[in-house]
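pinned: reference chain
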Amino acid sequence: MEIWINPACSKCASALSLLDEEGAEYTVRRYLQEPPTAAELEDLLTRLGLEPWDIARTGEIAATELGLHTWSREAADRTRWITALAEHPSLIQRPIITADDGTAVVARTEAAVRSVLSPAIPDRT
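pinned: its structure tokens
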């Protein structure tokens, strides 16, 4: 599993602590230093079942400078949003965990972190 973090983020520290407490094996990606590509973001959004504006931090300075608040949240501007997130990774919600099984979550709560730690219960019907 991989966790995208900003070391200054308190939610990231909490998620890392919980992963450590549970003995989870993970790789840390400091995404501000190693920004995701547009293709990685597209894959992540697909796994999360979200749109790029759903993981955007619109209160960031870069969001104001880009005029994000004026962009539509429609398919016509989707690529523009993804490009902005790739070019300005500070706009990405954090932390994000991608698990080996393809699960991905924005891990801002303990429940979200635990959701990638708990194996799926097999359907026995």
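why pinned: The helical segments are 10-21, 38-48, 61-66, 78-87, 110-117. Residues 4 and 42 are 15 Å apart (CA to CA).
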